Amino acid sequence: MSEQYALADIPLFSPNQHAAFRRGGYETVLDLFLSMPQDIAKKCRVGVREANEMLDMASSAITKPPRRLSDIPQEPSCFTTGDDTLDKMLGGGIRTGMLWEIVGEGASGKTQLALQLSLCVQLPSHLKGLSGSTCYLTTYSGLPTPRLVEIYSEHPAFRNLRINALENITTLATKSSEYLKTVLAAQLPALLADKRRTMPVKLLVIDVLADLFSEDGKTTTSQLAERSRGLGEISALLHGLASQYGLAVVVLNRVVDVFEYTAAQGTAHELVYAEQAKLFSSGNSVAAEQRKKAALGLVWANQVNARIMLTRTNRRRMVEGAGPKRPRISDSSGRPPVVAASDDDILIRRLSILFSTVSPPSSTDFIVTQRGVELLADDIDTFNPSLVPPVSQRPSTSTARPHEGLRDVESLDVAAAQQSSDAAVPSEESSQEPPVEDEEELYWRGMDEFSSDALLASDLGTSDDAVPP
Questions:
Q1: Beta-carbon neighbour count of residue 321 at 10 Å?
Q2: How many CB atoms lie within 10 A of CB 234?
Q3: Given a cut of 50, is residue 4 above it in pLDDT?
Q4: Structural domain boundaries, residue 117
């Protein structure tokens, strides 16, 4: 970062000023900026006016002149997702220089889409690719190479390509948030600089970020503050890499349950955090979306340029054909479809763009096949987040029956290979325990319950010596 410039390397300062910095113990520009002019004058034994002048000189030394838009080379900034309809929904595909988030529950298709993007970015420009490579960072397991090979072999976009797709995907396991920050700050820039001479890295995938911030037991306020600080540092590194190297950053995230509660007395219902969070943390196109919301809270949501939510709907439809063409779906009116005997039903999932800086919110159905992620309909359902029904009108969450979730897990799901049927069946003891609420929601609920009298008292600065009425 520019604030880490050493003061000794800035030629604008005079020898006397460099000596003053050494007396005061100031080594970098950041040390100088974090001090008040009075403190600088006292430690460096200079006047306050000269301390202000030294601050101005340090600011001028690290400030880069603005660039004209005409001087910036117009390089391709978008690559295909492998599905034309999804490209249309996203405003042309996955754009570089942005931080994308794919959020969803287990076996919703997050990793499937990430693997597909890891291959699509390698396509040449005439096939809507960037001829770039991928850096894939995992947090809970290794890269699912067999599934990656299957998508590469079955997807029609990769036919007749003379590239070894696996050689262009660099993977690394990051088991902690501190190690992830080390990778993003030191190891990854070296890799990006080295790859520029061969096949530049154009896509960075993190699968899954929420696993690095999971806490056992009840989350405290200090843990929330530490998590917020860590998320801020990671997002700053990601945005810096995306801007400097022209990367598309795709971060996979998990979901948490949405709980209903009444607002505190005297609090406007529209201002409660739970009511505001549904505008950017959950969808409203199907009932299953309203029962889940993105993890990591408001701090992380403010760092994301686009949020895509994937949901398992527990719906199945008859799909005709398994060829390269787009599958045709049975009539939604309820009439039985006319299909061949070899056709079979398939699990339907939902894809929703909750917000994006390059495209409007929209939603549609998709399936996961041997070819990867395929959208089912060319018509895209657009929706207005401000029209989301209130919490009181949402469908109530019901307890799932044993094995009900496993019935809808396809063999293509990466998560299905890591979950056994025993883990899906809750025991009698665990079923009696109340659900754990999201710590972010608990924090903001406490903020909403502050009464106006308490706020007024804190503003007036009441003390123990106050005379009672």
A1: 13
A2: 22
A3: yes
A4: 78-329+339-397
- Whole-angstrom distance, CA of residue 130 vs CA of residue 141: 28
pLDDT of residue 347: 87
Residues 34 and 83 in one domain: no
Asked if residue 89 and residue 20 are part of one domain, the reply reads: no
Q: Are residues 127 and 11 in the same domain?
A: no
Which DSSP helix (H) or strand (E) runs through 264? Answer: none
Whether 54 and 184 map to the same domain: the answer is no
pLDDT per residue as tens digits for the range 273-284: 666 777 777 777
Question: How do residues 287-330 score in pLDDT, each as one tens digit?
Answer: 777 788 888 888 899 999 999 999 988 888 776 654 444 444 44
Whether this model's pTM surpasses 0.85: no
In the chain, the number of structural domains is 2
Does residue 209 surpass a pLDDT of 50?
Answer: yes
Paired strand residues for 293: 256
Q: How far apart are CA 165 and CA 156, in angstroms?
A: 14
Specify the CATH number for the domain of residue 174.
3.40.50.300
> Are 238 and 102 members of one domain?
yes
Domain shared by 91 and 55, yes or no: no
CA atoms within 13 A on the CB side of 28: 8
176 alpha carbon, distance to own chain's centre: 17
In angstroms and rounded to an integer, the radius of gyration of the C-alpha atoms of the chain is: 26
Extract long-range pairs of 382-391: CB within 8 Å, 24+ residues apart.
383/284, 383/285, 385/278, 385/279, 385/280, 385/284, 385/354, 385/355, 385/361, 386/279, 387/284, 388/278, 388/279, 388/284, 388/290, 389/284, 389/290, 390/269, 390/275, 391/260, 391/274, 391/275, 391/278
